[in-house]
Amino acid sequence: MIVGKVVGSVISTRKSSKLVGNKFMIIEACADMQKESCRLVAIDPIGAGIGEYVLVATGSAARIGSGMDLAPIDAAIVGIIDDPSEL
Q1: 36 with 57: CB under 8 angstroms?
Q2: For residue range 21-71, what is the model confidence (pLDDT) as tens digits?
Q3: Domains along the sequence of the chain with CATH
Q4: Which of 2, 49, 79, 80 is least surrounded, with the fewest CB atoms within 10 Å of its CB?
Q5: Cβ(78)–Cβ(65) under 8 Å?
Q6: CB 54 within 8 A of CB 33
């Protein structure tokens, strides 16, 4: 699991039918979570906004955690951090 900040969104008008209706957000992993600066695109089934700190599941945990076992998902926002000052 990665802790990161939502820094933007991605609009995709053409995508896999299993991803229709999902919002895509750009996540910048916190410095302590990665050796280098890292950004990734994650689906957002919980409604995080730009500027919020979030928990991101990756790999098969992303598909299972978002309830879309058969969708082509590699990263999913699974939580919003209430108090990012603790990071």
Answers
A1: no
A2: 899 999 999 877 665 668 999 999 999 999 999 999 999 899 887 788 888
A3: 2-86 (2.40.50.220)
A4: 49
A5: yes
A6: no
Answer for the pair 2, 29: CB distance below 8 angstroms, yes or no: yes
Distance (Å, whole) CA 40 – CA 26: 6
CA distances from residue 51 to 36, 38, 55, 73 in whole angstroms, order as listed: 20, 16, 13, 22
Q: Give pTM, 2 decimals.
A: 0.87
C-alpha span between 86 and 17 (Å, rounded): 39
Q: Which two tokens stand for residue 10?
A: 């991605």
DSSP state of 74: S
